[in-house]
Amino acid sequence: MEFSPSKLNTFLFFKLPSAFWSGVRVKAISKEQCVVTVKHRWFNQNPFNSMYFAVQAMAAELTTGALVMMQIKNSGKKISMLVANNNGNFTKKATGRITFTCNEGHLISEAIERTITTGEGQTIWMKSIGVNEKGEQVSEMNFEWSIKLK
Predict the structure, then answer these.
(1) Do 71 and 113 form a contact (C-beta atoms < 8 A)?
(2) Which CATH number applies to 5-149?
(3) In the structure, what pLDDT confidence band is assigned to residue 89 with cuts at 50, 70 and 90?
(4) What is this structure's pTM?
């Protein structure tokens, strides 16, 4: 699969339909960064008239997971990936369009190189920050990815 926003959004439709129908969309991806947006709507709201935390988690996880998938593909090796742990902080009600960004692609390339060299599994903690349309942080999510050679 080519790693472009349109290809990843098609992937969402077929492989992660709950994220797709909740409005999660990839806007940009490069070796170092992935940007995903999701708009607060009736379908993804909580009883407090803001975005449900799980929708924020789906968007944030996608920013980190897409980077891991892309770099695994670029390595040319068969490597498995799995979320081993996660945590999050919610600092403001998520309303309007929320943009999640992960800028930690460099962590993945180092871990993939170590797992290929040593044959041992590696774990990487990656952070995604969600901001509203005013640029105010609404949430910070951290995901621990586990990778290993198949």
Answers:
(1) no
(2) 3.10.129.10
(3) very high
(4) 0.95
